[in-house]
Amino acid sequence: MLELWEAEARADQLSEDLIQIITKRLQDYSILAQPARAEILKELWVDVTRSESGLLIETPFDKEKIPITQTDPETKDEVSEEEPSQVSESEVTNIPVKEIQSRPRTKTSPSGASATNTPAALNAPVTVLHGVGDRIAQTLSRLGIITLQDMLYFLPRRYNDYSRLKPINRLSNSEEVTVIGTIQNITTRNIRNGKAQLVEAVINDGTGLLRITWFNQVWLARRLHPGMQIALSGKIDQYLGRLTMNNPEWEPLEQQQLNTNRIVPVYPLTTQITQRWLRKQISQVVEYWAPRLQDPIPKSILSENNLVDISSAIAQSHFPDSWQDLKAAQERLAFDEIILLQLGVLHQKHLWQDRKAKVFTIEAGWMERQTSGLPYSLTSAQQRVLSDVLTDLGSGRPMNRLIQGDVGSGKTVLAALAIALIAESGAQSAMMAPTSILAEQHFRNLLDLLVTTQESGKQFSLNPAPIQSSEIRLMLGSTPESEKSQIRSGLEDGSIKLVIGTHALIEDPVQFANLQLVVVDEQHRFGVRQRAALRSKGECPHLLVMTATPIPRSLALTIYGDLDLSVLDEMPAGRQPVSTYLVMPRDRERAYHLIRQQADAGNQVMIIYPLVEESENLETRAATEEQARLQGEIFPNLKVGLLHGRMKSDEKDKVMSDFRQGKYHVLVSTTVIEVGLDIPNATVMLIEGANRFGLAQLHQLRGRVGRGAQKSYCILIPDHPGAGENERLRAMVETNDGFILAERDLEQRGPGQFLGTQQAGYAELQFANLTNVRLIEKARRSAQKIFANDPELTQPENQLLASALQQFWRGGRGDIS
Fold it and tell me: How far is C-alpha 657 from the chain's CA centre?
C-alpha cells in the first residue's frame, strides 16, 4: 500500500517533506506490534495536522515505543528495529538549557568540545532522537552514550570490509564480499525438531544463483519478498558443494547503505542494542552534526601537518569511504588529543618557569670536597646530571627536573648532594616516597650520606657532612602521633633540615619554615595533586623527581613533558649484569638447586609471588602457605622468612632488618619489595607467576639483586608452560636494557598499567596511542609553535583551541594548582 500511496501523493503534489515523514513512519508498520502501530498512527496524525497549519517540524517522540525484537547474528542481543528519523536543528536547540546542563557527562571528546566551539545542542540527551525513549537511553548509558556528543564520538572498535562487490559467478569460498541481486524465492522451515527456524532465500544477479540463510529471524520472510532487489554482505561458505552466505548483513538496494557494500563499522555493544540499530542512530547524528562542528585546531596547523578537518575526521571515523580516509581520520583525532596534552604540559612549564626561586650556588672546590668522602667516583652520567641539577638550583627559576635511571644507577647520591647544598644555606628539604619501605630505605641511605662521620661512626659520607642526625627525620603514616608532633614542630621552627616520608608529609598540619627543595621518588605512583600539595608547603620550592622505571621517549614527551629530563644511562663500575632465565614449572627443581648452591656460598635469595589485585587476602595466604612449604619441604636446612603487605609496619621492619643482617637465607615476599629493599648480598631473584607482571615491573624486581660484586641470577617461572604470553617474558632473557623493556611493556599494556596506576588523564585517551612517537613529536612541535607565538591562547585564531584546552584539562590533570 505504501508504494502505491507514495506515487499517488507525488502525483497530487503533496509536500515532499510530509511524504518522506509518512513513508519513514510506516516503513516497518507491517512488523510492528499492535501498540506500536497505534503510536505510529497517532504521530502521523499530529504530523499531518501540523503540516496543514504550516508547522511541519518533526518532533521527538517522548513516549517510549514498544520495541519489536530481532536477534542480531553478531551479538544475539535484542533491540528496537524502528526506523530512525532525521533530527532537525530547531527541535534540538529548543530543548531547555536547564535540562541539557543537568545531564551528566561521561567522557571528553578528543577536540575538547565545549559550548563555545561545538553546537550547544550536542549536549542534548539522546532521547531527542526518534525512537529513543528513557529505557533505551538508560541502556545506551551503559556504553557511555548519554548525549548526542557522546554518540558523535562513540567510535567503532573495528571495521568489516564489505566494499568488494563481486558477481555471483566469481565468488570463492571464505571471502568477505558484497553481492547485489534480486530475491528469486524466500521460504521458512523448522529445524532441530522445531526448536529453531531457518529462513532461506535464493538470490539471482544474472550471472548465477546464491543461497542465503538466516537463523531465527522469521520476520525477514515477511520483510523480504521475491522480486525485491537487495544488497548482502558477509562471508561466503560452502555446503554440499554449493556456495552459501549465512546470516549476512542486508539492505534494500534503494536505501542508504550503512551495513553493506562498504567498510562497515562495528561498535561496542551492550544487551538489547544491535549493530544495525546503533549504526542507524549514529548515522543520523553524524550526517547532521559532523558538518556543523567548528574546528578548534587553527587551519595553519592542519595544513602544516597534512591533517583533515574535524568534520571529515568524525564522519570518516564512523563510515569511511576507504581505508586511507579512515587512517587520515584516526590520525586527526589522535593528533587532537596529543596536542591538547602537549599544550597543557607546556602551559604548566610556562607557569612554573615564570616564577622566581631562591638561588643556590656552589663555591669553587665545593663539589670535590663533598665527593672526596665517598668510596666511589661519580660516573660520567652522574656528573652530567649533577651539572643539570646545580644549574637549575642557581638559575633563579624553580627547578622542575626528572631524573630517570635504572635501579642502581646512582640517583640517591645526586639527591643527597642537592639536599646538602640546600642545608648549607640553612633551608629545608623534603623527600616523598610512595611506600614506607622505600621511605625507610632513603632515610637510611641519606643518613649515611649526610650525617657527619664522627657522629654516625661510619667510614664514608659527604665531606663535610652538612646535617646532624637530629636534623633529619622519618615521618610515616605509622609514626606515633607524639613523634609526629615533634617532627611537625621541628619543621615549623626550622630545626629539622630534611624530612623523609610518605603521603604523611602532605597532611595539612605539616608546615615548613623554609622549604626550598622537594624530592619525589617513583613519582608516577603519586597523583599530580599530591605532588602539588607537597610543593605548596613552600614558597616556590625547587622540584626534583626521580624514577627507576625507564621511561619510553613517547611518555617522556607527553606525561612528563612539563619536566626537564636527565637520564642516568651508565651503571657504576663493578656491577655485573644479572643473568636471567625462563624456567617452566616442571623444571622448578633446577631453580631450587641453584638456590641451595647460592645459600651454601653465603648468599641470599628472594622468592616473589604475584600480587593478585582482585584479592590481596588470597595472595597473603598464598605467600604464607608457600613459606611454610618451602621451609618444611624444600629448604629444611635453610632459614626462610616471610614478608607481605598485610603485615604491620613494625613486623615488616623486623623481617627486613633480619634479612639485611643475614638471619634469613631466603625471603618469601609479594611485590612489596619491588622498590626499596637494598641487599647487596642477595644474588638470586625467583619470580613465580612471572607472566602476571609487566616487563617494567619484572625489571624492577630483577634490580633487587646484583647490587654487590657477586654474580647474580633472575629466574622467571610462569603459571603454565607453553602459554603464548610466555613469549613476552623472553624479552627479559634477551636484554637487561630497561628502556627496551619499557618500550615493549608500553606497547603491550598501555600507559595506565605501565605506570602502575590508572593515573588521571593519561589512561583516558580515547584515540591517541602513546607509543606513536612520530605523531607525538609532530604534535609537540605544533604545540611549541603555538605556545611560542601565543602562550595564553588569546589571539582570535586560537580562541576555539583555548576552549578545547580548558575542556580537555577540566578533570584536574595539571600539576599546577
Answer: 38
How far apart (Å, rounded) are the C-alpha atoms in residues 753 and 747? 11
Q: Which amino acid is at 134?
A: D
Confidence check: pLDDT of 202 > 90: yes
The fold of the 366-395+410-547 domain, in CATH, is: Rossmann fold (3.40.50)
**Among residues 58, 81, 63, 62, which one has the least CA distance to residue 71?**
81
Q: Is 242 helix (H, G, I), strand (E, B) or coil?
A: strand
Label each residue of 192-227 as H, E or C: CCCCEEEEEEEEECCCCEEEEEEECCCHHHHHCCCC
Rounded Cα distance between 434 and 429, Å, is: 17
SS3 of 85, please? coil
**Local structure of 745: helix, strand or coil:** helix
Number of helices (H), then strands (E), belonging to the chain: the values are: 28, 21
**CA distances to 168, 171, 231, 251, 689 from 181, in Å:** 9, 14, 7, 11, 56
Provide the greatest CA pair distance for the chain. Answer: 109
Task: Determine the Cα–Cα distance for residues 402 and 409; give it in Å rounded to an integer.
Answer: 14
Q: Are 423 and 588 in contact (CB under 8 A)?
A: no
Write phi, then psi, for 247 (nearest 5 degrees). 50, 50
Among 3.50.50.60, 3.40.50.300, 2.30.40.10, 3.40.630.30, name the CATH number for the domain at 579-735. Answer: 3.40.50.300
Q: Is 502 helix (H, G, I), strand (E, B) or coil?
A: coil
Is 324 exposed, middle or buried (CB count within 10 Å of its CB: 0-12, 13-18, 19+)?
exposed
Per-residue pLDDT of 669-680, as tens digits, reads 887 765 556 788
- Give Cα 748 to chain centroid, integer Å: 12
Alpha-carbon torsion 80, 83, 87, 88, what sign?
negative
Contact 679, 659 (CB under 8 A): yes
Q: What is the pLDDT of residues 118-162, one digit of tens each?
A: 566 788 889 888 878 888 999 999 898 999 989 999 999 888 777
CA contacts within 13 A on the Cβ side of 43:
26
Query: What is the identity of the amino acid at 207?
Result: T
Q: Is the dihedral of CA 524, 527, 530, 534 positive or negative?
A: positive
Q: What are phi and psi of 243, to 5 degrees?
A: -80, 140
Count CB-CB contacts under 10 A for residue 445.
16
What is the C-alpha to C-alpha distance for residues 808 and 340, in angstroms, rounded to an integer? 7
Distance CA 705, CA 694 (A): 18
Are 606 and 613 in contact by the 8 Å Cβ rule? The answer is no
Q: Residue 33 gets which letter from DSSP?
A: -
Q: What is the C-alpha separation between 664 and 656, in angstroms, rounded? A: 9
Q: How far is CA 596 from CA 266, 485, 552, 602, 665, in A?
A: 56, 48, 38, 10, 9
- For the chain, what are the domain ranges? 1-56, 57-156+270-293, 164-261, 366-395+410-547, 579-735
Distance CA 79, CA 393 (A): 64
Among 421-425, 747-751, 769-773, the minimum mean pLDDT is found in 747-751
User: The pTM is what?
Assistant: 0.63
Q: Which of 472, 422, 473 shows the shortest CA–CA distance to 451?
A: 472
User: Does the 164-261 domain belong in CATH 2.80.10.50?
Assistant: no
Nearest CA to 733 out of 764, 702, 765, 688 is that of 702
- The distance in angstroms from the start CA to the end CA of the chain is 67
For residue 552, is the peptide bond before it cis, meaning its omega torsion is within 30 degrees of 0? no
